[in-house]
UniProtKB/TrEMBL annotation:
<dbReference type="GO" id="GO:0005254">
    <property type="term" value="F:chloride channel activity"/>
</dbReference>
<feature type="signal peptide">
    <location>
        <begin position="1"/>
        <end position="18"/>
    </location>
</feature>
<dbReference type="GO" id="GO:0005886">
    <property type="term" value="C:plasma membrane"/>
</dbReference>
<protein>
    <recommendedName>
        <fullName>Bestrophin homolog</fullName>
    </recommendedName>
</protein>
<dbReference type="GO" id="GO:0034707">
    <property type="term" value="C:chloride channel complex"/>
</dbReference>
<keyword id="KW-0406">Ion transport</keyword>
<keyword id="KW-0732">Signal</keyword>
<keyword id="KW-0868">Chloride</keyword>
<dbReference type="InterPro" id="IPR000615">
    <property type="entry name" value="Bestrophin"/>
</dbReference>
<dbReference type="Pfam" id="PF01062">
    <property type="entry name" value="Bestrophin"/>
</dbReference>
<keyword id="KW-0869">Chloride channel</keyword>
<keyword id="KW-0407">Ion channel</keyword>
<keyword id="KW-1133">Transmembrane helix</keyword>
<dbReference type="InterPro" id="IPR021134">
    <property type="entry name" value="Bestrophin-like"/>
</dbReference>
<keyword id="KW-0472">Membrane</keyword>
<keyword id="KW-0813">Transport</keyword>
<comment type="similarity">
    <text>Belongs to the anion channel-forming bestrophin (TC 1.A.46) family. Calcium-sensitive chloride channel subfamily.</text>
</comment>
Length: 305
């Protein structure tokens, strides 16, 4: 930011103290006039659309806790179901990270390695390994299917029909209402879709030429903006230090947004690598485990503390 500000001030000083009133002033103003009509507003929109969006698992956990009907099961059964829900959401993230991050793959090179820390049970590992999917295929969506089946077993329709076809109110309590059940499944689908995009970007990496073109595009936009600032000073008829200071200060947020979004775009090319700027996947996994347990089984979290 300091470098771009110095460049703007240097161009202004060259014009005010070096070229103004000389024969070369006309050529300098022609350069300003050429850059004055160049549109630069679309650069920021292009940078923002270049970014991807993530989604946190606590959205599902909070929605589940809000809709959960305690009267649908015993206290022990409800606590066990909450623990299973938190564990399945954690497994969902870990299975995805194993496919996109080498660090997590080294932590859990095989599914059997997830049994000892209590992330998966031996039966669940057997289900994952005995599926008809290829061993190298992504299995991250399977825990989502387990959550759907888990809730579906406890879901009860508000009405039942007797032998005569008459509709009666269901005497059994449901884990959530019909509308809440639909919203919960919809939120699960959103979570799976958003994180599925992460896997898609890992499968089909963005070409390096796109990032190079984007970098050139941003720096060219900032350079043009430096000349556009000089054109505004010349048009105003005032070329003092105060005008230069105001223009530099007003342009700082514009340049800051472009450079910051460019830096973010460079990082998200492969955010799950081993560079210093990449995501700390180990921290993310630990964070998800703590947050999910705090939401769904707060009594267990207090015992651990």
């Amino acid at each position: 930011m300091l470098g771009w500000t110095i460049l703007m001030a240097l161009l202004s000083c060259i014009y005010v103290y070096g070229l103004k009133g000389t024969e070369s002033e006309r050529y300098f103003q022609v350069l300003f006039n050429l850059t004055e009509g160049v549109p630069t507003d679309g650069t920021l929109m292009f940078l923002m659309s270049y970014m991807t969006h993530n989604r946190w698992p606590e959205n599902v956990a909070l929605l589940y806790k809000q809709y959960f009907n305690k009267n649908a099961m015993s206290k022990h059964e409800g606590r066990l179901m909450n623990q299973t829900m938190a564990r399945y959401l954690t497994v969902f993230y870990i299975l995805l990270f194993r496919d996109v991050c080498s660090d997590v793959r080294e932590m859990f090179p095989a599914l059997d390695d997830m049994i000892h820390p209590g992330i998966l049970t031996a039966e669940e590992v057997n289900i994952l390994q005995s599926s008809r999917l290829d061993r190298g295929s992504p299995h991250y969506w399977v825990p989502i299917d387990w959550i759907v089946n888990l809730v579906k077993r406890k879901y009860r329709s508000p009405y039942i029909y007797d032998k005569n076809g008459r509709r009666r109110k269901n005497p059994k309590e449901s884990i959530m209402s019909e509308v809440e059940y639909a919203k919960f499944i919809c939120e699960l689908n959103k979570l799976r879709g958003k994180l599925g995009d992460v896997l898609s970007y890992d499968w089909v990496p963005l070409p390096m030429a796109l990032l190079q073109s984007l970098t050139i595009f941003v720096y060219s936009t900032l350079t043009v903006n430096c000349f556009q600032m000089q054109a505004r000073i010349i048009t105003s008829g005032k070329s003092g230090l105060w005008e230069m200071f105001v223009e530099c200060l007003s342009t700082l947020p514009f340049s800051m947004l472009h450079l910051s979004f460019l830096r973010i775009s460079q990082v998200i090319i492969n955010p799950f690598g081993r560079d210093d700027d990449d995501f700390e996947t180990q921290y993310l996994i630990d964070r998800h485990i703590k947050v999910l347990n705090e939401i769904l089984v707060p009594e267990e979290s207090r015992k651990q503390k």
